[in-house]
Design brief:
Strands 3-2-1-4-5-7-6 form a 7-stranded mixed sheet, sandwiched between helices. It is globular and about 50 Å long. Helix 8 links the parallel strand 4 (133-139) and strand 5 (167-177). By secondary structure, it is an alpha/beta fold. The chain has 10 helices and 7 strands. Helix 2 packs across helix 6 (96-109) and helix 5 runs parallel beside helix 6 (96-109). It binds S-adenosylmethionine. S-adenosylmethionine (SAM) is lined by residues 19, 21, 69-72, 92-95, 98, 120-121, 139-142, 154, 216-219. GO terms for molecular function: tRNA (guanine(46)-N7)-methyltransferase activity.
C-alpha cells in the first residue's frame, strides 16, 4: 500500500466511522513517506464492520496481547514492545503522522511484535474476539471538552461493553488523562461496570504516576503547562 492509499483509506474511514480531528500534522517528510510505503504493508492489520480480527492467527506464538488506543507518536507503544518481546502489541491510531512515527521506532529497534491498525478504535474493538487482550492502554485521549461533543469520547457508556468483552478475566484497562472532567467521567463510566475493579483505591491515589511508566509527549506538555494527571487502572474480574 502506498502512502496515498493509506491516506485515502483513512479519509474513507473518517467518513464512514467516528473519527474526528487531524490526520496529518504537516506535510510528511521523505522518510515518513518511505516508512508508510515500505514498512506499513507488512505491519498493518485491516478491520471492518462485521469481520472478526483473529489476532492469534495473525500474530501467533506470543504470550499475550496488548492494545494501545490512540498511540499518538507511538513512543509509549514502542517502549512497551521493546520491554516485552514475548508479548504482542497492537496500536490503533488514525493519525497518519503518528503511524509514521511508530513505524520509525519499529524500524530503529527492529521490533517484531508490533502491528498497527489505522482506523477508529471502535471498529477495531467490535472486530476483536472475546477475551483476547491482556491489557488495553488509553493514554491522554482527546478530551472533547464541549458537552455536545462528549459522545465522541473514546471511553464511554457505549464503548465500555466492548472494552470489557475483549479483555481476559484478570486483564487490565489502563487510562490516563490530565483533564479532570474526563478523569471523573472515566471513573463514572467504570463505576457502572461491576466486572471492573480499580487497581488503586481512593480518590487521591489516582494522581500517583504508576511505576514503570513512560511519559509521552502529550503528558509532558501537560506537565509543562502545570496540569495534574490522573492515572486509572482497572482489573477485569470474573462476574
Ligand atoms: C491527545 S492524543 C494522545 C496521544 C498519546 N496517547 C499520548 O499520550 O501521547 C489522542 C490520540 O487519540 C487518537 N484518536 C482520536 N480518535 C481516535 C479513535 N476514534 N480511535 C483511535 N484513536 C483515536 C488521536 O489521533 C490522537 O493521536
Amino acid at each position: 500500500m502506498t502512502y496515498q492509499n493509506a491516506l485515502n483509506n483513512f479519509k474513507m474511514a473518517q467518513h464512514h466511522r467516528k473519527i474526528w480531528g487531524r490526520k496529518i500534522a504537516r506535510p510528511l517528510k521523505i522518510n515518513q513517506k518511505r516508512l508508510l510505503e515500505e514498512e506499513l504493508p507488512s505491519l498493518q492489520l485491516h478491520v471492518d464492520f462485521g469481520k472478526t480480527l483473529n489476532l492469534k492467527e495473525l500474530m501467533p506464538g506470543f504470550e499475550g496481547y496488548t492494545l494501545e488506543i490512540g498511540f499518538g507518536g507511538g513512543e509509549h507503544l514502542a517502549w512497551r514492545a521493546q520491554q516485552s518481546p514475548a508479548q504482542a502489541f497492537i496500536g490503533c491510531e488514525p493519525f497518519i503522522t503518528g503511524v509514521a512515527g511508530l513505524l520509525g521506532y519499529i524500524e530503529d529497534a527492529e521490533l517484531e511484535n508490533v502491528r498497527v491498525v489505522i482506523d477508529d478504535a471502535r471498529v477495531l474493538l467490535q472486530s476483536l474476539p472475546d477475551a483476547v487482550l491482556d491489557r488495553i492502554f488509553i493514554l491522554f485521549p482527546d478530551p472533547w471538552h464541549k458537552k455536545r461533543h462528549h459522545k465522541r469520547r473514546i471511553v464511554s457508556d457505549e464503548t465500555i461493553a466492548d472494552l470489557s468483552r475483549v479483555l481476559k478475566v484478570g486483564g487490565e484497562l489502563v487510562m490516563a488523562t490530565d483533564i479532570q472532567d474526563y478523569a471523573d467521567w472515566m471513573q463514572d463510566v467504570l463505576s457502572k461496570c461491576p466486572e471492573f475493579l480499580p487497581d488503586q483505591h481512593g480518590r487521591e491515589s489516582v494522581y500517583q504516576r504508576p511505576e514503570h511508566w513512560y511519559i509521552t509527549r502529550y503528558e509532558q506538555k501537560g506537565i509543562n503547562a502545570g496540569r495534574q494527571a490522573s492515572y486509572l487502572a482497572y482489573k477485569k474480574q470474573s462476574f
